[in-house]
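Review session, final week

We close the course with one last complete record, chosen because it touches almost every idea we covered. It is Phenylalanine--tRNA ligase beta subunit, chloroplastic, a protein from Biddulphia biddulphiana with 713 residues. Go through it on your own first, then we will talk.
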Amino acid sequence: MIFKMHISLRWVDELVDIKNFDLEQLIEKLTLSSFEVEEILELVIDSKKTTILDISATANRSDSMSVKGISKEIAALIDRPYKSAKYLRQKLSWKTRIINSYLEQKKYSEYLTFIAIIIENLTDYNVPKWLKAKLVNSGLIPTDTLVDFQNYILLETGYPFEFYDFEKVNSKLKQSVFNLTLTRVKTNEHFLASNNLNYKLNKNILVLKVNELYLSIAGTISHKDFCYTNQTKALLIEGSIFNSKIIRQQSRIIGLRTDRSTRYEKELNNTYLIETFYRLILLLKISNPNLTCKLHTIAQTKKQHLPNIFLNYKKVNEILGPIRSTSSFQTTFITVRQISNYLKRLNFTYSFDQTLFVWKIKVPSYRSNDIIREIDIIEEIGRLHGFNNFLTKLPKLKNFGTEDFSYQIRKKITSCFLAAGFNELVQYSIVNEQTFEDKHIKHINIVNPLLSGYSSLRISLLPNLIKTVSQNVKQGNFNFEGFEYGHVFSGNMVLDFSEREKIGGIFGAIKTKTDWAKPVNSITWFEGKGKIEQVFDRLNLVIYWKNSINPVYTQILHRYRTAELFLLSGESLGIFGQINPILAKEQNIVRNLYLFEFDFELLKNAIQNLKLPLYKEYTLYPKIVKDLSFIVSQKVLFEDIKKTLSDHGTKFLIQVKLLDEYRGQSIPLGYTSLCIQLIFQSNEKTLVNKDVENRLKDLESILIDQYNIIVRV
């Protein structure tokens, strides 16, 4: 998941001195450090030119998803000091009175920190001009409401806060004292959110309650009854760090993602949450000097002890390899001093053992989510040094892997289908349950699908193949024939689950000319059957056909033009048939489409069990090829002619092939013109052309006597 943000370099310069740093070099360093700069914008605000970077960051770097966070990253990359924020050095006199702390400490899986503060004497909603300018620089439109303060603090620190109208909360309560609790919904209930939409809540949804009233869907959106307005005089401000997995799951369940929930999904750290509360209150006090604060609820999990990570110098060199050097004859590695410098720039606390060349490192808490192993620190060292500054060397392989029998069979089958004119396809195993199969056949549903259109495991390859043809037709590609390997699933996850690999395909859309005397046309069912038989001939497999149809295919294949294929062992190999005409009409595709689906495991075993073929020695003497053209009655079968030629052609006639058959205006009615190729070859001597010509004349005479042929010159 990628997170995007607009970063003002003028804002960054307040925290890191980058005025004299080359912009192109800065962008290159960010890009090589996994922060992709997608666009550079130039804005003029209050007659001041500001450069804005549109930056994309990966989800595991939640610490960098703010101006403060990206500024720390830039400080480390360009080796310049990070300026401490002024508000961290300012003190705020709280009226600290913890009224209740009813959030149970045992629920560590739901939150890390929960803080609720009551703000009173809020009279002025004016937003400072400088704050609005920074919002504009970040691509947000100021509203002159409290929303601007929420957005600003989110941009600056990365922490989302929720504001509630404290007076509205009090007016809804029957008693003066109220408790805040995080709890799961016990029964299915409706929640009217601040966006004026109703959401159905179930027992998987975490909510924040004030006594018995719903205050918000935790970490996502507040209740409409407690929204603040420009007349609000007192606020209840909630600042929390929730479990990212819980927020992600419940956002998917209710179908709602907000700016707040999106931040929690990235696994925020609570290191600077208290300081951020200070910052927010100080911002509100700018226009409200008589503002009062009361700490109402605070609860947090026990801070986990961060273990030390040991970094071995030898391991760093093994992973990152040699660095670029001015000398091309000597291999140079990154030095111990350089590594120590990079650790310091990353704010890592460390000690170095000069005997073992090992660093003992303490990672700062705000990087504890993404740096947990030695390899993570090595990656950080590579980022700061620049991965482009390391030499690229491929490892020397001593042993090469061998192709197992399954892979060899797959290559052979693929070659056969490619030779038959098919294209290989790759498609998803996850489909929509509402496909073309019989609705009585149950799919295996996915418990937690990402999308409703991909909620079940497929039970056949054919529906996706039909959809692919339909989509190609819509794009103007009518000549589409393909096959694919894929897994299909049946049964149920509890009692009887089955997964098998299949080979499926679809063809017939390409019109061909099968007869010289006829125009191009779609192939018939028997011609399609012949195409499949040619594939099995290439695989040296003998199969037989039986008129039957599996219930899985009743909605997909033609009821009376479908056959099941069997091996000689009696095992059912799969199915072949024409597309159901009703389905073809629904998908707006031609009816002359033929589909097949075979069991790959059975096919592999059948090929593996084939007997070893015997080969005869290849002759060293040349062939003599002769053609014989004649006109013969259509009642005479070619097989009879072929047998006659083979019987009388001597042992040197090794092959008889039909080259051409023609019927037209120059041929008498009821007759056909055949062109036959005769191949003569000896294993003992070189044949003489004169002897072959004499034998050819004898064969012509035999055919004239038996079949009354007319020889064409």
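Two points worth writing down before the exam:
Residues 689-707 form the longest helix (19 residues).
The first strand starts at residue 2 and ends at 8.
Good luck, everyone.
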